[in-house]
Write a structure and sequence with these properties.
The chain is an all-alpha fold. It contains 17 helices and no strands. Helix 3 packs antiparallel against helix 12, helix 8 packs antiparallel against helix 9 and helix 15 runs antiparallel to helix 16.
Length: 331
């Protein structure tokens, strides 16, 4: 049998009518729609980077737990809901303002270089406008829903985080202690929003004691949490010129000592949470959570490596959520 030559095959193919050759399949999704979806996805991602929803969720959980501890189940859930809305708007504003001030240092860190301001996808003026609008609206909602005291605390948290903590980061490792105050203040938002001052003046000091203990716990909790992050990204912080404790002391000994001291102090502070209610279950839950946290922090203090820092970071999140849930459900 004779094999057709290449020329013969070419002639045969050319002789096939054009209609007989199947056309290339058309894209299932029109290109403009694909581009539109891509733009929407980019906007959503940038909004998440700007407002940092994971931090906002922790703030809201703190405010809600403090309000519950102060006044029990809310008689007006909608009022608490609006207080949370106002709080999260102020928190989002502070996050944007922080990124406005840190846009240059963010460009020098791999973990933050993709933020909209650092990457140049968002201009400074629109960001300033967004931060201002969110702050004003959030302050107003917090004032209407939780009273002037709650709104003033939200504003104080914004000022401390943006105008003190953020500028202090390139100057001194004390920035962590200042930032921890800003992180603990949302407890007072919940206390004010649930009528804490009126209850205290009426002689009900138990709720105020529990909320004060929660605020202390939250303040101390942040040191191991932040030191784990500072260790994991110590080289990036150094490249950005930020004076984290792991940068000024590369051995990690000072960071480990500070984290361990705070975690040990957390144990008695968390146990005080159970005193007003006399709940044995809350006492045991607080003891288990904080002792676990102290053990994991000790592991980091001894090892001072990325694996132990990462374990401490994830443990810190679980411990805080567990303590907040126990304070609400077991008291």
């Amino acid at each position: 049998m004779t094999v057709p030559s290449v020329n013969a095959l070419s002639v045969a193919v050319a002789a096939v009518p054009a209609a007989a050759v199947p056309a290339a399949p058309m894209p299932l999704t029109p290109m403009p729609l694909v581009e539109s979806r891509s733009r929407v996805a980019t906007v959503i991602r940038d909004l998440a980077l700007l407002t940092r929803p994971r931090i906002a969720v922790m703030v809201l959980a703190t405010v809600a737990a403090a309000a519950w501890i102060t006044g029990g189940p809310p008689a007006e859930p909608a009022r608490l809901g609006w207080l949370l809305v106002g709080t999260v708007l102020v928190a989002a504003s502070s996050s944007i303002a922080n990124q406005i001030l840190e846009r240059e240092t963010d460009r020098r860190m791999e973990r933050t270089a993709c933020r909209p301001l650092a990457a140049g996808r968002l201009g400074t003026l629109p960001a300033v406008a967004a931060a201002a609008v969110l702050f004003v609206v959030g302050f107003g909602i917090a004032n209407l829903a939780g009273g002037l005291g709650a709104a003033v605390v939200a504003a104080a948290t914004w000022l401390l985080y943006v105008l003190v903590y953020t500028p202090l980061k390139p100057l001194s490792p004390l920035n962590t202690a200042v930032g921890a105050v800003a992180g603990a203040l949302p407890v007072a938002i919940g206390w004010f929003g649930a009528g804490g001052p009126a209850r205290f003046m009426a002689g009900d000091v138990r709720a105020t004691l529990a909320v004060a203990a929660l605020g202390t716990v939250l303040y101390l909790w942040q040191f191991p949490h932040f030191m784990a992050i500072a260790w994991l990204y110590r080289r990036q912080y150094a490249a950005a010129g930020l004076k984290m404790l792991t940068v000024v002391d590369p051995s990690g000994l000072r960071a480990a000592g500070q984290a361990l001291a705070a975690s040990l102090a957390m144990v008695p502070a968390a146990l005080v949470l159970a005193v007003p209610s006399g709940s044995i279950r809350l006492f045991l839950a607080a003891a288990a959570a904080t002792i676990t946290y102290a053990c994991v922090t000790l592991h980091f203090a001894v090892r001072r490596d990325d694996a132990s820092a990462r374990l401490l970071l994830f443990t810190s999140l679980g411990v805080l959520l567990g303590l907040l849930a126990a304070a609400v459900t077991l008291a």
